[in-house]
């Protein structure tokens, strides 16, 4: 239940920002998708920056952790166990 309340709070905050900016909601699909992409990529800025300053491997982090977070868990052929018809 907590995650739903947090999601509602984030949505309310975005609604207030939309109102301040004078943007009507729902935004056109392309604008909404670009905004969502910005959110997903923006979440990765601090972890990547921390690794850069700590001289830790960044490329592996981007390929593994960032890719999974931004793209979601991608399906593989092993996940598909449909029986032939």
Automatic annotation (TrEMBL):
InterPro entries: DUF1427, XapX_domain
Taxonomic superkingdom: Bacteria
Transmembrane segment boundaries: 29-46
Keyword Transmembrane among record annotations: yes
Keywords: Membrane, Transmembrane, Transmembrane helix
NCBIfam families for the chain: XapX
Protein name, entry field: XapX domain-containing protein
Species this protein is from: Qipengyuania pacifica
Taxonomy of the source species: Bacteria, Pseudomonadati, Pseudomonadota, Alphaproteobacteria, Sphingomonadales
């Amino acid at each position: 239940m907590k995650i739903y309340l947090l999601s509602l709070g984030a949505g309310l905050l975005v609604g207030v920002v939309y109102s301040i900016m004078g943007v009507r909601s729902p935004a056109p699909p392309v604008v909404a998708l670009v905004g969502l992409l910005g959110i997903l990529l923006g979440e990765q800025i601090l972890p990547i920056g921390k690794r850069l300053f700590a001289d830790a491997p960044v490329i592996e982090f981007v390929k593994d952790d960032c890719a999974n977070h931004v793209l979601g868990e991608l399906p593989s052929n092993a996940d598909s166990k449909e029986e032939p018809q």
